[in-house]
Amino acid sequence: MSNEFSSISGSKRSLHVQVAREIARGILSGKLPQGSIIPGEMALCEQFGVSRTALREAVKLLTSKSLLESRPKIGTRVVHRSNWNFLDPQLIEWMDGIIDSETFYHQFLGLRRAIEPEACALAAKFASVEQRIELSETFQKMCDVSEAEEFDQEAWTEIDMKFHNLIFNSTGNDFYLPFGNILMTMYKNFIVHSSQKGDLCLQEHRNIYEAIMAGNADKARTCSANHLQESKHRLPPLI
């Protein structure tokens, strides 16, 4: 497992975060197996070209994310996958390019199915007047982007993310708020994939929007579930 990493001493990023990222990607890709002991301080400092302080800060960061654990006389061990916090925005960012995109999108869609239809139902019941106005303005911008002569991927991604985040923020349930924020990290790549070639599912968004604005929780839930089918997001059905 020696010489697993390259020097990052010239990186413009915070050194300890860059070190943490490289070690994390080694863990997430399986190059550093679960339960294995990572190389010692001196070896890693030499490989990365950083100080012990930067390395220790990196290990502390990865320990806080339950990717690593340090034990006296044993060393620093890779924690079992079941303990990893896959909803950590930074961890999601570090996963980019490691996990097969189609697998990642299927898993993300499965998570959305578990929580988003109910979020839509709650938003239909509990969204404030101000939140409904903001949702209405946001949906109108979605229509404007979709009707433009030339499709603007960046503009659509931004407004689509805002639409879904507003729904989580409008549930009246504080436990949904972190999902709205955390999922934005995953939404971006997912939306770019699903909206390629202008496949925007605007009608499905309209159905969700109108159900929420009408205060119809059951319809909002049903419309959301319909929107979250694989076929609506350029994904083959799971066999």
Automatic annotation (TrEMBL):
Indicate whether rRNA-binding appears among the record's keywords: no
Reading the lineage from the top rank, the first entry is Bacteria
Domain HTH gntR-type, first and last residues per copy:
13-81
- Transport listed as a keyword: no
Q: Name one GO molecular function term.
A: DNA binding
* Classification via PROSITE patterns: HTH_GNTR
Q: Which UniProt keywords apply?
A: DNA-binding, Transcription, Transcription regulation
**Cited Gene3D superfamilies:** GntR ligand-binding domain-like, Winged helix-like DNA-binding domain superfamily/Winged helix DNA-binding domain
Q: What is this protein called?
A: GntR family transcriptional regulator
- Taxonomic placement: Bacteria, Pseudomonadati, Pseudomonadota, Gammaproteobacteria, Vibrionales
